[in-house]
Amino acid sequence: MSTYAQKKGFGATLWDFLTTVDHKKIAILYLIAGGLFFLVGGLEAVFIRIQLAVPNNDFVSAGLFNEIITMHGTTMIFLAAMPLIFAFMNAVMPLQIGARDVAFPFVNAVSFWLFFFGGVFLNLSWFLGGAPDAGWTSYASLAIASKGHGVDFYILGLQISGFGTLMGGINFLVTIINMRAPGMTYMRMPLFTWSTFVTSALILFAFPPLTVGLVLMMFDRMFGAHFFEAAMGGNTIIWEHLFWIFGHPEVYILILPAFGIFSEIFSMFSRKRLFGYSSMVFATVLIGFLGFMVWAHHMFTTGLGPVANAIFAVATMAIGVPTGIKIFNWLFTMWGGSVKFTTPMHYAFAFIPTFVAGGVTGVMLAAAAADYQYHDTYFVVAHFHYVIVGGVVFALLAGTHLYWPKMFGTMLNETLGKITFWTFFIGFHMTFFIQHFLGLWGMPRRVFTYLPGQGFETANAVSSFGAAFMSVGVIVMLINIIVTSVKNVKVGNDPWGDGRTLEWAIPSPPPFYNFKQLPLVRGLDAYWIEKMEGKKGMTPAEPLGDIHMPNSSFLPFIMSLGLFIAAFGAMYHVDKVSWALPVMILGLLITFGAMFTRSVKDDHGFHIHKEELMDDDDKGVKA
Amino acid sequence: MHAEEKFTYETWPAAPEKSTLEAKNKFLGFWFFLGGETVLFASLFATYLALKDKVPNTNMPLAKDLFELPLTFVATMLLLTSSLTSVYAMYHMKNFAFSKMMVWLGITALLGAGFLGLEVYEFSHYVHEGHKFTSSAFGSAFYTLVGFHGGHVAFGLLWCITLMLRNAKRGLNLYNAPKFYVFSLYWHFIDVVWVFIFTVVYLMGMVG
Ligand code: HEM
Ligand SMILES: [Cu+2]
Fold it and tell me: Chain A: nearest CA to B28, how far in angstroms?
């Protein structure tokens, strides 16, 4: 099995990826699919900004505009940001704890394919009669009234990909609890691993309410139920609660891994141990916990009453405290360090003021009485883009540069990387800073146009101009990726030279079994400790022996494909077309058949023998 | 392959459900899964409570007109007993008594099937009284909550039978012991959920 380094044909490579259960390859799949959806969502954003660049514009119609904003938000959150985060979690977390794979490699593949088919399903709406148009929050009164199948695509697409995410969360939790290398205690885990852990717990408890909300809406729209229909005794606010009980933890699901990536970057490129490690861990856990207590701050204007609003306002503001702790720890990490301004460090540096601005507007919004002014204006749009783009997307771009060599064995070009950074950074602030003021001046969000003479022209033009800059940044990054991949200059274990954690102690990319011998972890920043003592690599914790590995399988793909097919049946069943029910049953049969096969067919995996591992050494594959 | 290693009563470990890494992972992962399921049912319960007795007109039956204790009590007893029999099954699993385990699992499945039968009868009875999935928000919420539970029972039955058939000929080993164990966890879980349904939906429903 030591053939992984050899050249393969295209067909073989494709089959390899379709059947893989290796966390590193699944990471690449997440990166590619999430990256493509990021481009789609970005294109939608550009369309929004073109439409709003000048008053009374008719670049797109009002109806199409609603579809575009809905798809932009939904795609960016569920199909771009989350999968890209999953890409890094998959690529890095098992390596950071010294594991050979995740706890359930098969389930890991199922997670990916469910996300993928859910995302494809959602985006097919563009070609099959129109996309969803009730906003990414899909409030029930709007969504129930929405004509056509747009919202059905939203419901079913998110349902399918949501299952994948949930399983991924469980998988990572078990991996971190059960599969840490000898000596890797909880308080020696790198912060990215910690944030993966807390994020996974958030996923576990936040996704079921979304699942329920989507099921209820599916029943209402497709099977004649009346959860949200006031005339039949229903209540539209139930959706808002379920959605935000999911939705607010979701924003922390996005930002905590971003915090994790930045924590790694700050300490790597300040070449210092992370300041206040244990308070960082504490703050991460606390943010995760508080994240569940604040959902109603999205519903201040719904009319829950002053007592509920006050409680949720105070709870929301409380989250600023652990977040502040983190900010100061990052600053103190740089303080007195020998800071190296690599591309990832550029993003990390820019992240701090940007995210603080987003946090400040967050606390402003949390003042319930004041929120009656801000709510549903561009001020909110500015707030969440400051935290999501300035926090999450900056981290994803930084992470792409940081971990590219670990994932692909070659370094992205630093000059192009810095060009991307500067154009993206300037473009971002140009686009969104002015939107705070647009909101305060009274421009509502989710409107497809505005009239001249209201004082919105200049600000909107500036904002659209900024979007062009951001696009240039992304294009430069794509060029960077292509150039780098063509040149394909191979790098060693620790290409940045400043690696501190276990992933930098093994080759880039690592062999498929990751660690030939599990490493012995002697403290926080395990690899750094060894380097400081003049050792070249980690001390093994076990003698060289056989390694047990899972078999690859095509079943995850088939399982997910079944649900994808069934979703079409469920959706067109409403139109009373004759093939709908059979298609739904067929799809479910495929899925359950695949599950059944998995259950009755034993799969014990295989062993790599000691002799083969020794062979690898002779071929010069270091481990 | 070591997972298929043959055991005797003497060599069988004390905690076969947790004695390999795979088994430990499965065990822990399943507990987390049940954590997620708890939130799922909590959301359904909340929805039900918000929509209880919310009907479009006054001719429609409400909870206190519909529910009758005898039927649901029998159903509850069937399911509670099945939880007990699955405990017996796991007791024999830990003692490496394969055929006794199979017998108790079979009884568990039968009790579960009896419960499902009663539920189907109950639902059709309500539909006759005008309490339908599509007739009111109350109906939608009721059938969704109780039906989700029923669906879990049905899935559990299929799971139990599949496990029994698949392993009928090969006895216990460290590969399938955790599978049986995890099934029993699941079965207890749906039992606990039912206790809440019995309390919140039926008992509290009859009170008014
Ligand atoms: C100190 C931290 C934060 C506070 C106090 C805060 C507070 C708020 C409040 C009160 C709102 C509702 C505004 C309204 O609709 O009128 C809001 C909206 C929003 N926030 Fe935050 N937030 C914080 C951090 C974050 C982070 C870290 C993210 C994401 C990574 C985020 C993403 C969002 C999003 C997406 C919305 C808008 C949802 C929508 O209506 O479409 N926030 N925030
Ligand atoms: Cu929020």
Answer: 6
B100: helix, strand or coil: helix
**Nearest chain B Cα to A606, which residue?**
B1
ipTM of the complex: 0.94
- CA-to-CA distance for A454 and B142, rounded, in angstroms? 51
Q: Are A167 and A115 in contact (CB under 8 A)?
A: no
pLDDT tens by residue, A211-270? 999 999 999 999 999 999 999 999 999 999 999 999 999 999 999 999 999 999 999 999
The yes-or-no verdict on residue A138 having pLDDT over 90 is: yes
The Cα–Cα gap between A605 and B90 comes to 27
Task: Using the predicted structure, report yes or no on whether residue B5 has a pLDDT greater than 80.
Answer: no
B134 min Cα distance to partner chain A (Å): 5
Residue-wise pLDDT tens digits, A450-481 = 999 999 999 999 999 999 999 999 999 999 99
Alpha carbon B206 to its chain's center: 24
Distance, CA A441 to ligand 2 centroid (Å)? 23
Interface membership of A198 toward B (CB under 8 Å): no
Q: Please report, as a single letter, which amino acid is at residue A574.
A: V
Residues 6+ away with beta carbon under 8 Å from B22: B3, B178
- Residues of A whose CB is below 8 A from B56: 231-233
B132 touches chain A (CB under 8 A): no
Taking an 8 Å cut-off on Cβ atoms, the answer to whether A235 and B56 are in contact is no
Q: Is A172 on the interface with B (CB under 8 A)?
A: no
CA of A383 to the centre of ligand 1 (A): 7
Using an 8 Å CB-CB cutoff, list chain A residues near B29: 103-104, 170-171, 173-174
Stated pTM of the model = 0.95
Alpha helices in A496-577 (DSSP H): 526-532, 555-572
Task: Supply angle C-alpha A327, A312, A288, rounded to 5.
Answer: 45
Decide if A606 touches B, using CB distance below 8 A: no
Count of other CB atoms within 10 angstroms of residue B158: 12
What per-residue confidence (pLDDT) applies to B15? 86
Domains and CATH numbers, chain A: 2-553+603-615 (1.20.210.10)
How remote is the CA of residue A389 from the centroid of ligand 2, in Å? 15
Render pLDDT for B145-158 as a digit per residue (tens, 0 to 9): 999 999 999 999 99
- Picking from A204, A125, A130, A128, the residue whose alpha carbon sits closest to that of residue A158 is A125
Supply B89's token pair.
């099954």
